[in-house]
Amino acid sequence: MIELKSAAEIKKIARASQIVAQLLQELKGRVKAGVTTKALDIYAEKRILKEGGIPAFLGYRGFPATLCISINDEVVHGIPSKRVLRDGDIVGLDLGVIVDGFYGDAALTVPVGVVSQKAIRLMQVTERSLYAGIEKALAGGRLTNISHAVQSCAEAAGFSVVTDFVGHGIGRALHEDPQVPNFGPPGQGVRLRVGMVLAIEPMVNMGKSDVRILEDQWTAVTEDGDLSAHFEHTVAITDNGPKILSMI
Which residues lie closer than 8 Å to 94 by C-beta, 6 or more apart? Predict the structure, then answer.
């Protein structure tokens, strides 16, 4: 069941989302060669607690960390560890925060030092596909208008969208109805309504869309070993169009 949020509830989601946005920018500045992914995770947890929030991912369905950190061919749900970032890596940072019982969620992918032009283009296109989807998050429209916009943007650039993972509603729970696919024809799915809050999150692969899960039962990687990028915003549907809550 899809829950429509009141203005007061959206403010609470926005508060959590703003903390996410701020910390992602701080983490972006700390992504450097020689840094371990565990160090980034420790930093994120401390900062969330300092802001009065609760890490949304830590312990969620058994996930063992605050941050999802996915490197190069890792698509999503990478677990922080002693792994050291290297020049040329691209790093997906996915973060969730709970404040006053409401969730915020966002993600971005950033380079470590100098990366290939192909990697830069992948990140640019993935972010552009996110905003293409957000533009279609309009009251009265259909859910798959978002999906089709994301897919069209990614595929026009020669990339592929991941179909095994999708975006989602968000509010009092991290994952709520409806699911928000990053693929499909327009004009289908539920009709979008004012008060819906969605986590829109394209995952785009440089090669084929196929993924597999590693033995840790969390980390998803591209089947062909090629690069993947991930961007996400928490977005409210309003009378005045989509409002990005996870932006500073």
Answer: 57, 67, 68, 69, 70, 76, 77, 105, 106, 107, 230, 232
pLDDT digits (tens, 9 = 90+) for 45-67: 999 999 999 999 999 999 999 99
Read off the pLDDT of residues 213-237 as tens digits, 9 standing for 90 and up: 999 999 999 999 999 999 999 999 9
Q: How far is the CA of 204 from the CAs of 6, 130, 140, 163, 201, in angstroms?
A: 33, 10, 27, 9, 10
CA distances from 246 to 20, 135, 199, 218 (A): 7, 15, 10, 25
CA nearest 176: which of 152, 195, 161? 195
Q: Each residue of 123-180: pLDDT tens digit?
A: 999 999 999 999 999 999 999 999 999 999 999 999 999 999 999 999 999 999 999 9
Pairing of strands 211-213, 220-222: antiparallel
**Fold of the CATH domain 7-244:** Creatine Amidinohydrolase (3.90.230)
Please state, in angstroms and rounded to a whole number, the distance separating the CA atoms of residues 188 and 139. Answer: 14
Spatial neighbors of 157 by CB under 8 A, at least 6 apart, are 121, 125
CA dist., res. 100 & res. 153, Å (int): 36
